[in-house]
Amino acid sequence: xxxxxxxxxxxxxxxxxxxxxxxxxxxxxxxxxxxxxxxxxxxxxxxxxxxxxxxxxxxxxxxxxxxxxxxxxxxxxxxxxxxxxxxxxxxxxxxxxxxxxxxxxxxxxxxxxxxxxxxxxxxxxxxxxxxxxxxxxxxxxxxxxxxxxxxxxxxxxxxxxxxxxxxxxxxxxxxxxxxxxxxxxxxxxxxxxxxxxxxxxxxxxxxxxxxxxxxxxxxxxxxxxxxxxxxxxxxxxxxxxxxxxxxxxxxxxxxxxxxxxxxxxxxxxxxxxxxxxxxxxxxxxxxxxxxxxxxxxxxxxxxxxxxxxxxxxxxxxxxxxxxxxxxxxxxxxxxxxxxxxxxxxxxxxxxxxxxxxxxxxxxxxxxxxxxxxxxxxxxxxxxxxxxxxxxxxxxxxxxxxxxxxxxxxxxxxxxxxxxxxxxxxxxxxxxxxxxxxxxxxxxxxxxxxxxxxxxxxxxxxxxxxxxxxxxxxxxxxxxxxxxxxxxxxxxxxxxxxxxxxxxxxxxxxxxxxxxxxxxxxxxxxxxxxxxxxxxxx
Length: 537
Known about the structure:
The chain has 537 residues and is of the alpha+beta class. Strands 3, 4, 5, 6, 7 and 8 form a 6-stranded antiparallel sheet that branches. Helix 8 (247-255) runs parallel beside helix 9 and helix 17 runs antiparallel to helix 18 (505-512).
């Protein structure tokens, strides 16, 4: 260890001890009626100071004290429950952006392809959209500095910035012989919760919700308005893989489907302000369309609140796989230096009083998350169903607590693809996107109307052959015969990517879900979902 670090560590340790002793003094005041708490805190702080001193003196190599202490903080929180956590300052900004629902920059979804920043999609209504950036555009320089082989972290640093500031880009566009320059004025960029809102058929709307952020209720209302204008009479509301977000937003989204003055969700904690009841405002709800909610093992927290409210109040049908099972509510508390603490303050309960938190053992987070990926998870949960607490929905149906939201209809995801097809789909080079971008640019006359393209255009043998030849130019070696086994799936992906480049993410999703067995399988159960409308008025 170098001399400067040796001298610094005792000072840091002493400073930390002073800080923690201050906590002990405050704790002794706050917990004056509980001498045991004061004694434990005092003893453990002394031990912590000893550990730091010993590590400083005896450890054979240089010590990153910040990393060590972050690890200690993580360990402390892991002993509480799997969802209480310490968030270092370097991670906090990205998390804040997701929950605020916006950041400041130019507004592109991008990837690094063939060494260049490649626009996957300009964010609608963003500065990039306004100046006409297109899917497939490559940014070859930023402020006259070469952007070849730039890292994603460097992209964020260079393209994000204060609202009103400018950035000069040089763009290489497919089909345009020479690069051209654009100047973009940075602005507030929304981070959308609604990943897609499109029509599956003439009467069935589809909304895929990615997360619950500060703007989610506004986004979902806009999505419903858009689908209404397209003739929606029934809705598939996709919450698969949605890990949650704001509790208030979960209640607000639930309320969009509920027209009776019922409880949507309630919480119980140790302190008074942790106890809340969210009631539906009938004026904000709708029951003029039948509803199916899709969930899977990745649907957690706020997603489970929405699915639980729809199920308990007999508003619609829940289909898919048993959800994650997170029935705990966290509050994020700021710490010095920009870090934060996310601590569990309450349990939440669905309208019938169900607690859907899965069992866990303190400090055994790995086992808690690993259980989600058990191949026979659903069979295990089904075999234990009779041991779980039973509740009655508003209409008298039996539902279960104690471990996620059990769907009304179990419909597992099925997608058996050959190894070569998976190699193409998962390639970091994104060959289907690149091929789709090129095709859309070079065949703009045959791709002029979204609805015509969706209903009539097909990936011909010539298009597929061109795609297979393109894979070789991208150094992706796969068997043609292997790809032909999954021909319809690959054709669907090619068509979806072309549609996304030409018409946007919603039209791309409308095509992509045609090979999604859970979405398409859900359509067979709308008669059961329709029945709930007769009892929800």
